Amino acid sequence: MNSKEQKRFATTREQMENAKERTDLSSELEKDLENLGLQRRMKQLELENKFLKKQNDELV
């Protein structure tokens, strides 16, 4: 393998590693966003639960 081919091979390998890192980060970000959405929904449900309990107590 000559010098030009070696450089091209090294560049291709580096580009593949960079693409894998970007994919991993993208997947991680997607999971983080999903978790934040679930946390927000859980907080909303907790607040609704408190409100409904309060209403129920007032009716009793």
Describe what this molecule looks like in 3D.
With 60 residues, the protein is mostly helical. The chain has one domain (1-60). The protein has 1 helix and no strands. It is rod-shaped, with a radius of gyration of 26 Å. The model has no long low-confidence stretch (mean pLDDT 95). Residues 14-28 have a biased composition (Basic and acidic residues).
Write a concise keyword list for the protein shown above.
mainly alpha; 60 residues
Overview in brief:
The protein has one helix spanning 3-59. With 60 residues, it is an all-alpha fold.
Distance between the termini: 85 Å
The helicity comes to over 70%
What's the SSE pattern? H
What is the number of domains? Answer: 1
Strand count, sense and barrel status of the largest sheet are: none
- Oligomeric composition of the shown chains: single chain
The dominant shape is rod-shaped
Structural class: mainly alpha
Region (Disordered): 1-28
Biased composition (Basic and acidic residues): 14-28
